[in-house]
Amino acid sequence: MRITKSHKIIVYSILVILSLYFLFPFAWALITALKTEGEAFSFPPTFLPDVPQFGNFIEAWKSQPFGTYFMNSVIVTVMTTIGQIISCSLVAYGFARYDFKYKNILFILLLSTMMIPWDVTMIPLYMEFNLFGWINTLKPLIVPAFFGSAYNIFLLRQFLMNIPKDLESAARIDGANEFQIFYKIFLPIMKGPLTLIAVLNILLVWNDYLGPLIYLNDQSKYTMALGLASFKGVHELQIIPIMAMTLVMIIPPVIVFAFAQKYIVEGVSGSIK
Amino acid sequence: MLKKKEKQPSFTLVRKRVPYLFILPWIIGFLVFTLGPLGSSLIMSLFDWPITGEAKFIGLNNFTKMFTADPQFYDSLVITFKFAAIFVPLNLISALVLALLITQPVKGVKIFRTIFYLPAVVSGVAVSIIWGWIFNSEFGVLNYLLSLIGIEGPSWLIDPKWAIVTIVIASAWGVGTMMLIFYTDIKGIPPELYEAASIDGAGPLRQFFNITIPTITPTILFNVITSVIAALQQLTLVLLLTGGGPLKSTYFYGLFVYNNAFKHHQLGYASANAWFMFIIILILTMLIFKSSSTWVFYEAEMKKGGKK
Predict the structure, then answer these.
(1) Which of residues A17, A38, A53 is at a domain's end?
(2) What is the CATH number of the domain that holds A244?
(3) Does residue B74 belong to any structural domain of this protein?
(4) What are phi and psi of A203, to 5 degrees?
(5) What stretches pass through the bilayer (chain B) (predicted)?
(6) Average pLDDT, whole number, for chain A?
(7) What per-residue confidence (pLDDT) applies to B55?
């Protein structure tokens, strides 16, 4: 397509104006976190703080057990990511590389679980985890990840379907058993889509609020999302520490995104093909 | 011990079992974390089930109560559909417009792709805190900016008329995921199609409606379904940004179910509520799928049609 100069100018101006909507809230959060209380609670608002109060971050961090919250989030995120990678790669491999009885029905069943609204299973799941004695532990947030998730399995299966069948036939002739074929040949090939799954899972789990809200009661078990929300609920007016911790919570997903942008951009549409 | 009867299982028998071993984790998870709870909640919906004390079978009474004796059920349903009716088209159109913008062949466009996507990686908790402060009716920067251009902004979060708008604006901030889905799809359209159209004298607008849109209809279908389901289940932002208020103007259906379960401890009733929404979602999805045969074009079909 040939592009005229006026066309270029129009495109750039629209892009810049739209960027304001997407970027300004981040900037405003940062500016607020660095203000003094007098500056934050003034109207009309002051824009830049006179002296940026970097100490706000340290004070906010110490005002609540944010260190614990942060660690809990890290534990849940890391464990679920490991769980998803192990379980989804196994299950997707089974569906993609074998023919077996009821395969299609099972696969349709798998896909249809994606449509179930979470609140239909919310109450029995709570009771089930209560029965296991798991309420107020991190287990309800971690353990289900070791049994796969439909979306991730689907994503991996689509990838595995495109690999030629000869690959495992050759290995079988060489005497490799089925698990060795999976582990030694296919797992390394899946590195790309597995990275995508890991990234999607990190973002989903780190940001999750409803799961922790339902299963955790004790502050010492809170994740970052729940800890921050409850901090805001109790100290509604302390906007400066709230903003500071909001930014701290945003940083890990933004870093992950920065490193994995390529995988996300390529992977996100692969799922619907 | 029983196994001994089989003697040495033949090679093919082992091979036959292997695939099930691979998918075993999912089968267990499906039974324990999906099918079991799904069945339980259907059964619970037929009971009066308090959190402590005896559960009592009451047949379809929960459903009768919902339809005849609980005005909040209808209010929540109407608000939720109103939200979906605003949010879904808005989100789809803005995602599509953004995707078209970032596929323009101009320099530096990838930076904007990153900028537009960035809010999509942020937790609903953070979204609600950041936007809540921007919308704040006393110190909010939004009303200050509006006053600069001579508009007196409403009291966003405390005005029942405007609270739902704040939720739309804050949720639209995460449009990036859908934008990316459109983006990769539009990028995949072969440039020859456009070149050929250009030679035939079709302008950019006609190219958009005759090439871009028809090619991406499967993606539009996917996005319509996922965003309808997401809109009908919106809860995090409602809990954190407005808490359902003011005057229950944002008491979405998700919050209705959540509160019935965990605040009012009516587990049976909440299960009935949840199942009703499940059925609504199933019906809506089916209707969208059915309608899709008239407006979605699949590549394979087009090729077949071409051969005839």
Answers:
(1) A53
(2) 1.10.3720.10
(3) no
(4) -60, -45
(5) 21-47, 83-103, 115-135, 162-183, 274-298
(6) 90
(7) 86
Mean pLDDT value across residues B74-89: 95
Does the residue B15 lie in any domain?
no
Answer whether A239 touches B (CB < 8 Å): yes
Question: How many residues would you count in chain A?
Answer: 273
Statement to judge: residues A14 and A104 lie in one domain? no
Do residue A41 and residue A110 come from a single domain? no
Q: Do A43 and B139 touch (CB under 8 A)?
A: yes
Q: Which of B65-69, B244-248, B301-305 is modeled with the greatest confidence?
A: B65-69
Q: How far apart are CA B215 and CA B219, in angstroms?
A: 9
Q: Do B26 and A153 touch (CB under 8 A)?
A: yes
| Residue B24 vs residue B181, higher pLDDT | B24
Q: Which residues pair with B57 in a beta bridge?
A: B47
Residues of A with Cβ-Cβ distance to B21 under 8 angstroms? 94
Using CB atoms and an 8 Å cut-off, which of residues 52-91 of chain B contact chain A? Answer: none
Residue B26 within a domain: no
* pLDDT at residue B3, rounded to an integer: 46
My answer on whether A41 and A72 are in the same domain is no
Is A73 in the same domain as A42? no
Q: Is A15 on the interface with B (CB under 8 A)?
A: yes
Query: Can you name the residues that pair with B48 across neighbouring β-strands?
Result: B56
Residues 6+ apart with CB under 8 A from A48: A31
Sign of CA dihedral B241, B245, B249, B250: positive
Same domain, A167 and A218: yes
The last residue of one of the domains, among A38, A53, A68, is A53
Confidence of residue A2 (pLDDT cuts 50, 70, 90): low
Q: How many domains does chain B have?
A: 1
CATH number of B270's domain: 1.10.3720.10
Integer-rounded Cα radius of gyration of chain A: 24
Please tell me what DSSP assigns to residue A45: P
CB A232 within 8 A of CB A249: no
- Per the domain annotation, does B46 fall within a domain? no
Helix A239-270 and helix A191-207, axial crossing angle in degrees, nearest 10? 150
Range of the domain at B143: 88-296
B239: buried, middle or exposed (CB in 10 Å: 19+, 13-18, 0-12)? buried
Chosen for mutation from B13, B16, B22, B219 (greatest number of chain A CBs closer than 10 Å) is B22
Residues A235, A135: one domain?
A: yes
ipTM rounded to 2 decimals? 0.90
Nearest to B267 by CA among B36, B275, A211: B275
Give the Cα-Cα-Cα angle B230, B235, B241 (nearest 5 degrees). 125
What pLDDT digit, counting tens, does each position of A82-95 carry? 999 999 999 999 99
Q: Count structural domains, chain A.
A: 2
Q: Are A123 and A47 found together in one domain?
A: no
Q: In whole angstroms, what is the distance from residue B237 CA to residue B244 CA?
A: 10
Mean confidence (pLDDT) of chain B: 87
- Judgement on whether residues A147 and A243 belong to the same structural domain of the protein: yes
pTM: 0.89
What's the confidence (pLDDT) of residue A173? Answer: 86
The DSSP H or E segment spanning B57 is strand B56-57
